[in-house]
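ingest -> validate -> predict -> emit
validate: passed (alphabet ok, no gaps, 389 aa)
predict: started
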Amino acid sequence: MTSKSAAHIKMKNIPFNRVHLTGREIDAFKMALDAGQLSGGGDFTRKCHAWLRERTGATAALLTHSCTGALEMAALLAEIGPGDEVIMPSYTFVSTANAVVLRGAVPVFVDVRPDTINIDEKAIEAAITKRTKVILPVHYAGVSCAMDEILALAEAHQLIVIEDAAQGIGAAYRGKALGAIGHLGALSFHATKNIISGEGGALLVNDEKLDERAEIIREKGTDRSRFLRGEVDKYTWQDIGSSFLPSELIAAFLWSQLPETDAINAKRLRIWDRYHAAFAELEYAGRVKRPTIPQDCQHNAHIYYLLFDSLEAREGARRALGAAGISASAHYVPLHSAPAGRRFGRAHGRFDVTESVSDGLLRLPLYPDLSDEDQDRVIEVLTTFQKAS
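emit:
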């Protein structure tokens, strides 16, 4: 091997994420096209619904055009409205808060835990007021929030629990699928998630009294789903709603992936475990902090991150990786400090952990097709940089 080719291999770029295909996507597309079914609600949609219901135990599972759409549907089903308050972590994606703000309600931001980076369940009760209607936990990195404590609080104060399980497909809490523990849950199948359809999501309904209304809201406020099942001879406007239904091509793509959930997550978990073992020495030396997985949580290796003790340390590590052709990424800007968060929301308490995590968290490349060789490069560059700094 020439020195030129060796240098080329050494500097091969390693992306932060790479789309994983099962090899059945094109065949699924062709089947949908041959059936002449492009609008949503066809055979592939029904197969995905059945798989999600069986896998999660939800009373209903409905594909949506995005997890954002699923959260907006959940807000409608929970009848969130002007004057209501919804408690959520500040460290989350904007869709969590937007679903609330679009209903005229107020997102109430609280801090996260230093171990799981999930909502601090001990901060919730102090944030509850007579206007509180919903608790909206977010399962960060596919690691469950402390759902027993959250459900107990909700029951004591007669509140609804909506789970943002965007990152949680295939993960569980005490054997229960994330998204199917509270009253309602939202999943994501965005191209950056473990199981993908490009764009896409799903609403999980865990209260059968809401099943029929969920179908109506998803179909622009009509009973079109009943019409497609032959239960009525025409469909009509029944309720408020919007166009949350994805096309059948999206459902076909998703169906090529869903049955492979365990196999895909197993590959991700292997990579996660290799990172975790490799960075143990740096954590013991106090140079970084690794993720924590509570005993009750069965995670899905959605993210592997390291926590640095400052923004400067985190950015130094990111620059070192970038110089070696390796893409790594920070994550959320806290919502309580964002312009829209200050305008539409209310911050409750201190946010010491949230702000520290926002400054210090660095996500590393993790996708099923990441080779051991490429992962070893990531580990070597980071380890060398940290020991030298």
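DSSP finds 16 helices and 13 strands in the chain.
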